[in-house]
Amino acid sequence: MGPRPFFESLMKIRPFRIALVVVTSLIPLALLAILIFLARYSWPALTFNGWHFLAGHTWSLGNLYADPIKQRGVLAPIGADYGILVFIVGTLLTSAFALAIAIPISLGVAVFLAEGLRSRLRTPLSFVVELLAAVPSVVYGLWGYAVLTPLVAHTIGPGLRATLGFLPFFSGPIGSGYGLLAASIVLALMVVPIIAATVRDALAQVPSETKEAAYALGATHFEVVRRAMLPTVRGNIIGACILGLGRALGETMAVLMVSGGALNYFPGNIYSPVTTMASFIVSQLDSAMQDPTGMAVRSLAEIALILFIISVITNIIARLLTGTSRNASPV
Amino acid sequence: MPHPFKLSRIARRKWLSGLGWTLAAASFVLVAAPLLDILYTVIHKGMSALSLTLFTKVTNGISGGLLNAITGTLVLVFGALVFAAPVGILAGIYLSEFGRGRFGRVVRFLDDVLAGVPSIVLGYFSYVTLVIGMGWQFSVLAGSLTLAIMVVPYVARFTEISFLQVPNSLREAGYALGFRELTVITRVALPLALPGIMTGVLFAIAISLGETAPLIYTAGWSNFLWNGKLIHEPIGYLTYVIWSFINQPYRSAHALAFAAAFLVILMVLLINVGLSVMLRRARPMRPGQR
């Protein structure tokens, strides 16, 4: 195969490149397909539920044994009422508490791994954070079930009530251990590796001039980290936190296994059972299938659609803040 | 004698710095301890539930073995790779070799977005389109495709990065010898990028092995061994056992759940140890190094 004549190579259709473009397009097409098919499938639910979907706080399948009637132009069981405010609140509260726990700890871990260790120890200890990210969510749930919820009921919960009990949301009955607090702790453990790894990589790329300038002003090592390095990577920190938020909002199995599953009531305190949007989809599809009109299954699709849109928005914001994600680590 | 005010100020700064390092180390301990406890709990309780019947018998209600779940997990993960590996690798090649234009930038961005979509949303999407829409019911194909959509972004990203690490001088040398584009990519760049691609595939395997949410309503569950049918036939998998059996009030169910968790964690651990060794070896790749 010798060099090809100039004009031939200019006019040539390149099958290899075309094939690559076609296959590569599958990635944006997958996102588009998720949006279109979830929207199309949940469309009757969107018209039936309206804005009440987001504002209502009862989820009731209605009378599945009576003949369904036509309401708002679509067929649905009598008394069917789909409101997901309770699950929205549950999602926001678990994610908020998880981030409140995870952010300071992640920053500490990132600083410790990036600056606080000899290089010989850095690799094995960083592996701990990598493993934390690798543990499957259902195994977190299993551990939450077997270890964490008893711990919350007997040690962490009473301890928290004794120290922060003067705050309204931290007082009151502790219950079984399943609930908002346990879910937030498990979520925090799953979010820490995301934030810590991103911030650690960003800290490693802070230019040495920045550090040396701070040292030259007489700063101690920790002051260099605190006053010179962390402010430099502020954008990455915020982006990483939003990335972590996206993970927490969509996490399903671990939350499902430790949250206690509250239906139709708001959490009274941090120890109350909660349900998140993601875990509700898994826990309810079986019973939703009993609805002969299919409206319940379509309403669950509406939840999935909302989760999809939320996750896309949080990810776009996070990626814009951290810049392109492909600098140091591929994960 | 130094100025007393200055001395105390320096002492205070040193003390605060010491406190800062202590808090940083403490936060590391705070995440390392749960990880160790997770590993200890799963390994300890899983080992005591291990027996030969796990590998020889299928699940019978809430007791019996895990043969159906073990083989089912392997089938689903393999199925996911069949779709995700070619698509991810080709997309990664495109992004690294031709992806500097607008289309490349958009795909790279959306690749990250797709990686951030919650797995339950992917599962429900497949439920709506494949299980109901195409009428496949709970099946190997629906489950594998869902896992594939989930891991494709990672395979593409790992592939892109490993191709980007191949020095351009080698490509130019290939072109100078008169190779075509395809030859340069497959014969010059691919061999050097292969370890990185394998890392991505291994990573995808580790993720697929541990997933539950996207499979519950696409793969279903079955007490029987897979009969080879791609659609209309549900299949068992290990993570389902963990999630579902731990909620049963029986000792045998709990034992199976922990045994399944042990097997999953064992595979994930092995892959991750392999990954970290490979990443360390593959990363510093300089011109002239093979």
What does this structure look like?
The complex is a heterodimer of chains A (331) and B (290). With 331 residues, chain A is mainly α. Chain A has a single domain, classed as Orthogonal Bundle (MetI-like fold). In chain A, 69% of the residues lie in helices and 3% in strands. Chain A contains 13 helices and four strands. Chain A has a two-stranded antiparallel sheet with strand order 1-4. Chain A has a two-stranded antiparallel ribbon with strand order 2-3. In chain A, strand 2 (69-71) and strand 3 form a beta hairpin. The longest helix of chain A is centred in the N-terminal third of the chain and has 35 residues, at 15-49. Chain A is globular, with a radius of gyration of 25 Å. Chain B is built from eleven helices and two strands; from the N terminus they run H-H-E-E-H-H-H-H-H-H-H-H-H. Chain B is mainly alpha-helical and 290 residues long. Chain B is 76% helix and 1% strand. Chain B is globular. Residues 283-290 of chain B have low confidence and may be disordered. In chain B, strand 1 (59-60) and strand 2 form a beta hairpin. Chain B has one domain (70-282): MetI-like (MetI-like fold), CATH 1.10.3720.10. Chain B starts with a helix and ends in an 8-residue tail after the last helix. A two-stranded antiparallel ribbon of chain B has the order 1-2. Chains A and B meet through helix 2, helix 4, helix 5, helix 6 and helix 7 of A and helix 1, helix 3, helix 4, helix 5 and helix 6 of B.
